[in-house]
Amino acid sequence: MYGSHKEQNWTYVLRGTGAWNSCSVIQAKLAEHGACSFTRWAPGPPNWQFRFDTHLTAGQVQAVLGDLLERYHVTLERAR
After folding, report:
1. CA quadruple 42, 47, 50, 54: dihedral sign
2. Sign of the dihedral through C-alpha 29, 53, 56, 39
3. How far apart are CA 80 and CA 78, in angstroms?
């Protein structure tokens, strides 16, 4: 869901661990800044990944997530 009407310039793939609940926590934190999609296990539980379309730079995404990055071992990479 789009929580913002700003132009969506960037697409990232976020990966983390901590089962489905941790993925939901991360997506909730990002919801107002763009759209999360294609959520799946990667390669299997408890590791997950999803795509995030947003107007934020990678540094801004990291700032929004704050300590959740470390708690859920979240990595962020620009999608191809």
Report:
1. negative
2. positive
3. 7
Residue 28: which H helix or E strand, with range? helix 19-30
* The two three-digit tokens of residue 46, written as one number: 């408890």
Rounded average pLDDT over 29-39: 96
pLDDT at residue 5 greater than cutoff 70: no
Q: Cα–Cα distance between 47 and 9 in angstroms, integer?
A: 27
Mean pLDDT of 8-36: 95
Q: What is the pTM of this model?
A: 0.87
DSSP code, position 44 = S
Task: Specify the pLDDT at position 43.
Answer: 87
Q: How many H helices and E strands in the chain?
A: 3, 4
Percent share of the chain, pLDDT over 70: 91
Alpha-carbon distance of 18 to 80, in angstroms, equals 25
